[in-house]
What we know:
By secondary structure, this protein is an alpha/beta fold. Helix content is about 40%, strand content about 15%. It folds into 2 domains: about 5-45 and about 290-385, Aspartate Aminotransferase, domain 1 (Alpha-Beta Complex), CATH 3.90.1150.10; about 50-285, Type I PLP-dependent aspartate aminotransferase-like (Major domain) (Aspartate Aminotransferase, domain 2), CATH 3.40.640.10. The strands form 3 sheets. The chain has a 7-stranded mixed sheet with strand order 2-8-7-6-5-3-4, sandwiched between helices. Helix 6 links the parallel strand 3 (about 120-125) and strand 4 (about 140-145). The structure holds pyridoxal-5'-phosphate. Pyridoxal-5'-phosphate (PLP) binds near residues 103, 104 and 174.
Amino acid sequence: MRIEMAERIEQIPPYLFAEIDKKKEEIRSKGVDLIDLGIGDPDLPTPKPIIDRLKKAAENPKNHRYPSYEGMIEFRTAAAQWCERRFGIKLNPVTEVLSLIGSKEGIAHIPLAFVNPGDIVLVPSPGYPVYRVSTLFAGGTPYFLPLRKENGFLPNLSEIPETIARKAKLLFLNYPNNPTSAIAEKSFFEEVVAFAQHYQIIVCHDAAYSEIAFDGYQPASFLEVEGSRELGIEFHSLSKTFNMTGWRIGFAVGHAEIISGLGRVKTNIDSGLFQAIQEAGTEALNHLDTPLPEIIITYEKRRDVMVKGLQEIGLEVDCPKATFYLWIGVPKGFTSSQFATLLLERAGIVATPGNGFGEAGEGYIRMALTVSEIRLKEAIERLKRIQF
Length: 388
Ligand SMILES: *Cc1c(COP(=O)(O)O)cnc(C)c1O
């Protein structure tokens, strides 16, 4: 029998990292000591109090059964209280908070609740690939909003054609931003609210990096802005905040009907989040101060080493105020892919070509600060030895 994939899978644009992944394996198999700056996954361990709480919670038989769909009230309350402490926003944990199996899960499911076939979804480019794919899975059409350096990597909403804005159902945003490491001020969120109100568009703000910021800067929540709670939700994740990417825990907050729509999709697909993990997440949100100083200090030092080194080599990179990414302009004469391949073949350094995050990412590569300072210094030494 011939196995045919569904069109929704076939239509997904080709995986742009496939080529570099293949090359990476080839080079690794030759015994080259690779410095992998390609993956946005913290190398630091989860703090001990969180692990201790999981151990205890795992032994409680009450936690071995199906959890509730919307999440334990203790976890949702901890999430609401954390949002109040951190952003000054008051949320009803029953109607305005939903637990997620990582925020990626919520982002992947939200279009199924609100996007009809043919609806337009506004998607930043470059951007986290899930916004585009989840739109396509729901039968929607992504309309890409280019994030350009001259505009601080914020989308220019006034450039969106009237006909597109009228057909748009949903807008994805993400600040602090992956992959550009750009930040948004509240004035931009105010523009977003006015735009979304005018065109009746649901705003989904991805705040995965709200607790990874430097030099004392504290990113704002989209929900701090007046009017935002009548049209939007925000995705939060414990992954980067507490070094918990493998645990799969996050939450969505905001407009009760949008939260409930997402909940209805989830009820039909998953059966919630292991309660022992929710207990550990509750411990994290209630008892650990964010941003966690030890995480920030580590990334800050790495950032300084790497930015200085790259600038000395003559590469174009800004010193980011947030996230653990560097968004680096490629030298003249190279495409993103060509430059990433050169770094891999000549220096054993893995970086992600910017066009993998969308066409508008062409001309850049992304490096993640998720390896030790010693290895970053080694990367700079290797870069100094090659010419481009
Ligand atoms: C890491 C990341 C997420 C997903 O985090 P999980 O909660 O682990 O699913 C979401 N959005 C962006 C932009 C990310 O980089």
